[in-house]
Amino acid sequence: METDNIYANVNTIKGKELNTDDIQQQSSETSNSGMRSADRRFVFQRWAAVGLFSVLLLTVIIALCVHYNTVIGNLEEKHSSHGSILKTNYTRTWKWVDDRTLNTGFWRTGEPNNANLGENCANSESNDSPKCGWNDLPCIHKKSWICEMPVKQ
């Protein structure tokens, strides 16, 4: 027996006489509507996943920006300096560039010593403790010089 006859026999039993073209058309319509529904569901799931991934990625980017801004801020606090503390010529008095006298300092042991004469600027060596790392050097050296900054609140 052929498969066409089987379908014809089943339809005859049910009281309907359908040809094989009608049966194939019905089955393709049923499967197409099922596929469209499944496709829609799949597309929705993909877009939901993309949206969730985007939110997660944005959160990570924001967290990294906050972290690196904090790190950069701390580095700037440690190394933010540019020729602002000077020794007045021919004296041992250290002053800020706005002419106020330096009242406190964090000099290394034995500093300021004016060892090479003309050491009229101060810098902080990063390998030393920040509380005792100041050194006097000639101002012509390209260094990170010490400056006075207002306290951040």
Automatic annotation (TrEMBL):
Boundaries of every C-type lectin domain copy: 94-148
Pfam families with a match to the protein in the record: Lectin_C
Transmembrane segments: 47-68
Keyword DNA repair: no
Keyword S-adenosyl-L-methionine: no
InterPro entries: C-type_lectin-like (IPR001304), C-type_lectin-like/link_sf (IPR016186), C-type_lectin_CS (IPR018378), CTDL_fold (IPR016187)
Keywords: Disulfide bond, Membrane, Transmembrane, Transmembrane helix
The protein, known as: C-type lectin domain-containing protein
